[in-house]
Amino acid sequence: MVQPNPTPAHVAARATRAADRAVPGEEVTGAEAIVRSLESVGAEVVFGIPGGAILPAYDPLMDSAKLRHILVRHEQGGGHAAQGYAHATGKVGVTMATSGPGATNLVTPLADAHMDSIPLVAITGQVGQALIGTDGFQEADIVGITMPVTKHSYLVTDPDEITRTIAEAFHIASTGRPGPVLVDIAKSAMQASTTFSWPQELALPGYHPVTKPHAKQIREAAKLLAVARRPVLYVGGGVVRSGASAALRRLVDLSGAAVVTTLMARGAVPDSHPQHLGMPGMHGTVPAVAALQKADLVVALGARFDDRVTGKLSSFAPHAAIVHADIDPAEIGKNRAVDVPIVGDLREVLGDLVPALEAEHAKVGRPDLAAWWHQLDTWRETYPLGFAPTGDGALAPQQVIARLGELAGPDAIFASGVGQHQMWAAQFIRYERPNTWLNSGGLGTMGFAVPAAMGAKVGEPDRPVWAIDGDGCFQMTNQELATCAINDIPIKVALINNSSLGMVRQWQTLFYDKRYSNTDLHTGQGTRRIPDFVKLADAYGCEGIRVEHERDVDAAIKRAQEIDDRPVVIDFNVSRDAMVWPMVASGVSNDDIQYARGISPAWDRED
């Protein structure tokens, strides 16, 4: 295996060089100002690829004693790795790319981070100032291109603006509703001289995120929660982003309400908590979907009433009053009318709501929720998550993923791609703590898993990190296994290989009369495997394992967990006919959920 780690002598030499230029007010190049700014803001890791326009920054980066640069194989991989790092650690992820195609390859991870509120700073090189607007070689207006999918974008042509801009970028990315910020820096600004001076304060007129909720709104929410007979806490990813899981647990225990956690909030409340009904939405549990439909009060915490949760919006939670708390005021009332709007950071919202609810309980007593929980428990008993044996003798993907969760344990981090395997991982792995489930929720980006797992492992090197991927997703970004192997990042990949674009095939089965147009990938069934993932893993310096029989599942997972000096890829050959249930078809009411094919719960008969 290639060992790129520098020698102790090299580390000492570059630390000396860094110290030599660490005097505040010193004259430096713009490129050196970039590196010094990243060091000053506390960045630890940069995922990137050098190229012509960003090349000046790579020279001083080589001398930094504080920054670890990881050379990825594709800019999209670098962006998703920075996302995985940010999601697992709560810190701002950093990625770097050159101009033109290097920058445009970051559009997908920037859009992904924007949808899922991931704090990310992308630094891109731009052609020299004199060439901007001339269609120069590798020029692209990346600020204009990314403006709709970033929290903010900068174009820097003055070297004196580099330090302040990077300081602002990290502040904007990590405060309020987290998100991605792009800093595009002209090559001419990197090559020019400037004076390095770290700003002591930031002046950002118009950017003042509200974190402290209004006391009156908190009291109104507490009054509703204190008297509701069918309350549901609808928990979104904002709880995870704000680090509010502990405060949420206090509200859950105090209120006695049912809890549902969205795809982005898995782990915000332990799955083992008796009030937790699981995930709502298109592929949510029947009890979670039913609870929202029959609730008389829905308290939405860091959630955005997206279509995958609500189904047909006009029929969503029709009997419920709505309390909506979010750091982003633009989300409140965007999709669903709200009775009590609360703008604020979820840690502060929950920190105020708990004592307010205690005060209401002291006044009016605790609500009698026995009938509500009798109904919820009946749904849980009648419609548990499960799966049928496969008809073709291949592995059941749900069983593979369930065993992976059990054997890896609650401290493992799981990053998934997008599709059937993503839904099964959300359903069949039990999450007991936040920041253990990483996936592309809002944008639904295939290829997310491997680079995100890589970034998570860099940020949390002492925890096992599994990428749960499909054979379609895996072929979009598997080149980052080379990055992992070379840089000693021993992620583990559970490849749920059904030789198909599985979720698309499921829709073709259900809605297109089994006309399987262009969904066969030829990767896992029959004698011809294109590619052979075990050979591919070996070519990338990884351990490759193939599993075709149920009896070998546990042994393969245990073997992977014992290997810690290189990445591992397990090619699980699963049934291509397995489908994700329950399911609410796109655009229909949640009342029309199907528990399994042809089986629809009858809510009205169970009231």
UniProtKB/TrEMBL annotation:
It is an enzyme of class 2 (transferase). This is Acetolactate synthase. Residues 218-353 form the Thiamine pyrophosphate enzyme central domain. Keywords: Amino-acid biosynthesis, Branched-chain amino acid biosynthesis, Magnesium, Metal-binding, Thiamine pyrophosphate, Transferase. PROSITE patterns: TPP_ENZYMES (PS00187). Binds 1 Mg(2+) ion per subunit. It catalyses: 2 pyruvate + H(+) = (2S)-2-acetolactate + CO2. Its cofactor is Mg(2+); thiamine diphosphate. SUPFAM superfamilies: DHS-like NAD/FAD-binding domain (SSF52467), Thiamin diphosphate-binding fold (THDP-binding) (SSF52518). Residues 29-143 form the Thiamine pyrophosphate enzyme N-terminal TPP-binding domain. Belongs to the TPP enzyme family. Pathway: Amino-acid biosynthesis; L-isoleucine biosynthesis; L-isoleucine from 2-oxobutanoate: step 1/4; Amino-acid biosynthesis; L-valine biosynthesis; L-valine from pyruvate: step 1/4. Residues 417-572 form the Thiamine pyrophosphate enzyme TPP-binding domain. Its EC number is 2.2.1.6. It holds the Pfam family TPP_enzyme_M.
